């Protein structure tokens, strides 16, 4: 599913021109004595809501894992086993295409040590970890544990000590951590997890509701449900003594339908739990199993067989519906759900899985949207029975709707298979193969709509309607749109469904040159390289500034990271816009500073930060410290327009902003100010 709707909550202050240093994890530490020579170092973190702190075990290729360094271990103590973590959560990230593991709200790390040097008085530990929400921050913390005096004695003079009494609390906060060198200067790239951000969650729930409502409307137009509308409404209006009572009964009937599906959503959420559903939806075997289920549903919709609940269920419920009153109406609604299962079951199943991937109350919201669309016609036609005459007659068109849904189920099935392939990195279903399958599916659907193909339950047809022809043309146009994707076209309309461009046989298209550009033959300035969209970019600030002076252009300073998701989104969806790209190509000098660059600085370039007191030993450290020291910010993406002397030209920096016009206006503001100074 296309996931482009993100708001950078952590940096609303940026929108007002105020930068800030973020530090969402607060640490406390303590040491517990296990034996005369063995101690347990305990690190407890309280993590701000919606932020993730990544585990030691989160895999490569995604967010940066927690790294623990024992500074004075050699000759003083040994580690007993590996550091043990408290409960973490694992979820698949479709941007990085890995299962990431992280702490939420709180976390604990415990490491047992065995002291070998009886004169040891303290243990120094460094943490390097990443915390993420809409942005990510890579933080280094320094902790010092004081060894109790009883441990300093030699083995000949060790005295028995009560374990509980030997506990030493070195509780600290980030501002006064066990070491005075606690810092937050190394900044990591931004990492996006759509369900972690509250506004993103709300938009995700609205998206689920809207999709569910459309799904309910689609189910309404199937042969299992549509013919029941006039039958059921006529029953209420004829059996009720007054029109008002008929309307009331129909409304109760509609509310009963909503209640039944809401209970289904509650049961699914209650049994599995929101986190379990989300974890399940990212599981390899689950994706494979659901691929098989969806293919089965698709075959049923296409007419191979019918999926039905036992007739005895329908008979028992139907007999209860004759009781009358509210109980009878409730059982009538339940009878509708059971009888229509062969059509609604596959839609409800697909919807629940999609909702499960959002977590939280999404299954409940999905069932509400679906059932609302299903119930509304029964209530509205009961209120206005004259509308029944305007309903189209049941016929072959209902089976056409069912077949179309079958094709859509089949296309969606390969998305689940693709998820499994991406997680396993098997490269069986690369982008080109996925697109070829979709082209085949939607191309066949277009032929079906044009009447060139018929399926088992189709009625004889002498002509096709204008509506069917129009829809067929839309499907054909979509199929043609997919074809250039085989040669490297981005296909932004379906972004998120096929595997990413990098997961393909030819990441840059069959020509291997990004659409046939001659970028590879460009003569680059000293210190420059080709960045996104073949933009000339510098990864060294001084060289970029020198070049900007030589060509008399302002600077677009881009604080970014190799693993920065929103940085990539800005490049893919904002920088790729024709108007933005034209500005970046001709009116600014791009300097991209990677704050997670691990290359070690030459010894003579290493230093201690005056701002944070942190040792700056890597290229990423250097650019991170530069961002913190000069701009008082520590998250990416972070954009600034500068003149050739390093002065800001815009009123405020810019961070993640998917509004192309707003980003263009921000760029234009800085560039115009530069021109006025010349």
UniProtKB/TrEMBL annotation:
Keywords: Cytochrome c-type biogenesis, Membrane, Signal, Transmembrane, Transmembrane helix. It holds the Pfam family DsbD_N. Residues 206-418 form the Cytochrome C biogenesis protein transmembrane domain. It comes from the Bacteria. The chain crosses the membrane at residues 205-229, 250-272, 284-305, 326-348, 360-384, 396-413, 433-450, 471-489. Residues 1-15 form the signal peptide. It is found in: Membrane. Its main location: membrane. It is a multi-pass membrane protein. The keyword rRNA processing does not apply. Residues 35-144 form the Thiol:disulfide interchange protein DsbD N-terminal domain. This is Thioredoxin family protein. It comes from Flavobacterium flabelliforme. The lineage of its organism: Bacteria, Pseudomonadati, Bacteroidota, Flavobacteriia, Flavobacteriales.
């Amino acid at each position: 599913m296309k996931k482009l709707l993100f708001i950078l909550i952590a940096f609303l202050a940026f929108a007002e021109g105020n930068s800030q240093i973020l530090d969402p994890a607060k640490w406390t530490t303590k040491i517990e004595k296990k034996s005369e020579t063995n101690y347990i170092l305990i690190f407890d973190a309280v993590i701000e809501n919606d932020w993730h702190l990544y585990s030691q075990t989160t895999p490569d290729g995604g967010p940066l894992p927690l790294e623990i360094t024992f500074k004075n271990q050699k000759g003083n103590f040994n580690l007993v086993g590996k550091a043990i973590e408290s409960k973490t959560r694992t979820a698949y990230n479709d941007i990085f295409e890995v299962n990431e593991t992280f702490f939420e709200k709180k976390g604990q790390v415990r490491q047992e040590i065995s002291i070998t040097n009886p004169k040891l008085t303290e243990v120094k530990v460094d943490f390097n970890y990443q915390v993420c929400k809409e942005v990510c921050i890579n933080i280094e913390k320094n902790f010092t544990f004081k060894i109790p005096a009883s441990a300093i004695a030699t083995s000949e003079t060790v005295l028995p000590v009560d374990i509980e009494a030997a506990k030493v609390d070195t509780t600290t906060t980030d501002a006064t951590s066990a070491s005075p060198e606690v810092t937050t200067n190394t900044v990591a790239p931004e990492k996006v997890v759509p369900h972690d951000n509250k506004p993103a969650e709300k938009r995700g729930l609205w998206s689920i509701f809207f999709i569910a409502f459309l799904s309910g409307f689609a189910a309404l137009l199937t042969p299992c449900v549509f013919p029941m509308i006039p039958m059921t409404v006529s029953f209420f209006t004829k059996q009720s003594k007054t029109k008002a009572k008929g309307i009331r009964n129909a409304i109760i009937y509609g509310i009963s339908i909503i209640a039944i599906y809401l209970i289904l959503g509650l049961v699914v959420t209650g049994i599995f739990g929101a986190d379990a559903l989300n974890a399940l939806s990212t599981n390899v075997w689950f994706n494979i199993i659901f691929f098989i289920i969806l293919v089965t549903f698709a075959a049923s919709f296409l007419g191979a067989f019918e999926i039905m609940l036992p007739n005895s269920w329908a008979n028992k419920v139907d007999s209860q519906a004759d009781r009358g009153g509210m109980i009878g109406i409730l059982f009538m609604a339940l009878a509708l759900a059971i009888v229509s299962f062969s059509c609604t079951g596959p839609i409800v199943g697909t919807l629940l899985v999609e909702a499960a991937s959002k977590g939280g109350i999404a299954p409940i919201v999905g069932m509400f949207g679906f059932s609302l669309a299903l119930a509304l016609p029964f209530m509205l036609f009961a209120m206005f029975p004259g509308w029944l005459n305007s309903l189209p007659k049941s016929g072959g068109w209902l089976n056409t709707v069912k077949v179309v849904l079958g094709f859509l189920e089949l296309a969606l099935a390969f998305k689940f298979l693709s998820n499994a392939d991406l997680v396993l990195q098997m490269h069986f279903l690369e982008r080109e193969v996925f697109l070829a399958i979709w082209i085949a599916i939607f191309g066949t659907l277009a032929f079906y709509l044009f009447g060139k193909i018929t399926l088992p339950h189709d009625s004889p047809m002498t002509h096709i309607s204008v509506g069917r022809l129009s829809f067929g043309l839309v499907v054909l146009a979509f199929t043609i749109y997919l074809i250039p994707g085989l040669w490297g076209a981005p296909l932004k309309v379906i972004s998120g469904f096929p595997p990413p461009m990098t997961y393909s046989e030819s990441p840059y298209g069959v020509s291997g040159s990004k659409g046939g550009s001659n970028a590879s033959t460009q003569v680059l300035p000293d210190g420059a390289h080709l960045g996104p969209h073949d933009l000339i970019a510098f990864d060294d600030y001084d060289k970029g500034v020198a070049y900007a002076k030589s060509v008399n252009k302002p600077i677009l300073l881009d604080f970014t990271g190799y693993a920065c998701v929103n940085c990539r989104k800005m490049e893919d969806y904002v920088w790729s816009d024709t108007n933005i790209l034209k500005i970046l190509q001709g009116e600014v000098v791009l300097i991209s500073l990677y704050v997670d660059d691990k290359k070690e600085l030459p010894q003579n370039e290493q230093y201690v930060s005056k701002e944070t007191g942190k040792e700056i030993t890597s290229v990423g450290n250097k650019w991170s410290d530069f961002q913190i020291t000069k701009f008082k910010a520590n998250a990416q993406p972070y954009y600034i327009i500068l003149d050739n002397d390093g002065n800001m030209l815009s009123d405020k920096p810019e961070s993640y902003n998917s509004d192309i016009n707003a980003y263009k206006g921000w760029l234009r503001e800085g560039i115009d100010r530069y021109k006025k100074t010349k």
